[in-house]
Amino acid sequence: xxxxxxxxxxxxxxxxxxxxxxxxxxxxxxxxxxxxxxxxxxxxxxxxxxxxxxxxxxxxxxxxxxxxxxxxxxxxxxxxxxxxxxxxxxxxxxxxxxxxxxxxxxxxxxxxxxxxxxxxxxxxxxxxxxxxxxxxxxxxxxxxxxxxxxxxxxxxxxxx
Length: 160
Description:
The chain is an alpha/beta fold. It is 29% helix and 38% strand.
């Protein structure tokens, strides 16, 4: 704290940046401005010549889970080349628990003689929470679960 301001450091292991916010902004977001929480910070960026570093004056702080839920447009699942037994039942069980969101589900299949992407119906829109993404990746394999954030990329994935 420095007078009417609160400061903290953002660190993504590739760089660090100081973030400052006025007391009223901090009070609105104090539940998520805690150590090791993944957040999105919106505000004004400026270069501080005294410290020779960039600084961010925060106006809005949002937990990454909330950003993902609000902005993810589709979840692309890539069918593994060697599917495990009971894979469809497993996917059904995992997705069923997380239905009721705004994120569509796409399933991509590719082999030597055919390929395509299947778009699940609107009743299968999910909430793309971290636990679901981790469970799906453990079933389908690394790199076979991807979130899409734009409508254009989701539509192009459905085509092919």
